[in-house]
Amino acid sequence: MDVPETPMEIHLKRFQSLTPLILKGTEATVYCENWLDDIEILFDSLEYTDERKVKLIGHQLQEVAKHWWIATKEALEQRGTVITWKIFKAEFYRRFFPLSYRDDKKTEFETLKHGQLNIEEYVAKFYMLLRFAPHVAGNDESVADQFTNGLNPEIALNRAKEAEENLIQQRGKSYVDPVQK
């Protein structure tokens, strides 16, 4: 007698049909970082709920990572913690992103300069490191300031000139030069 699949079985098959990466837990920190990014992008594109993400993630962990998650999940449940995706990520970061690594990345973000990077490389590195500076990431003005401060001075000056020209064009005849008053 055929037993119909449960909704969770259907979601698991769908998820695994997209061949998400496996994490063993012995990989370099940067691999773990990329793995989590890839998993989150996949979950978001599938529009999975937090509850579904937490149930599915265990299937993508093997070896050290699997044993870590089983022990961590059990400890959280014993404390009465409801395991959300946010809780999983916090525990994941605590285990696979040592504090020294996060501090190094935060410092790298705070001191990032355009320098010899082309603008696309600078933008990519800026946004990759932004996650390690949540005090900046939560404020659009701070993000813009940090980004601009890292640009080569010539580019920042040219950008300011362009912005000023655009402002003058937008204001048109209503603009009054304060020097001519």
Summary tags:
10 helices, 67% helix, elongated, single chain, 181 residues
Tally of helical segments: 10
Task: Report strand %.
Answer: under 5%
What's the main sheet like? none
Output the radius of gyration.
23 Å
Q: Strand tally, please?
A: 0
Strand/helix succession: HHHHHHHHHH
Mean pLDDT: 88
Report low-confidence residues grouped into runs of 5 or more. none
Structural class label: mainly alpha
N-to-C CA distance: 91 Å
Helix share, percent: 55-70%
**Quaternary structure of the protein:** single chain
Shape: elongated
Walk me through the structure.
The structure is a single chain. This protein is mainly α. The protein has helices at 7-17, 29-45, 50-57, 63-78, 85-96, 99-110, 119-130, 134-137, 140-150, 153-171. 67% of the residues lie in helices and 0% in strands. The radius of gyration is 23 Å and the shape is elongated. The N and C termini lie far apart (91 Å).
Topology:
Layout: H1 7-17, H2 29-45, H3 50-57, H4 63-78, H5 85-96, H6 99-110, H7 119-130, H8 134-137, H9 140-150, H10 153-171
Helix pairs in contact: 6-7
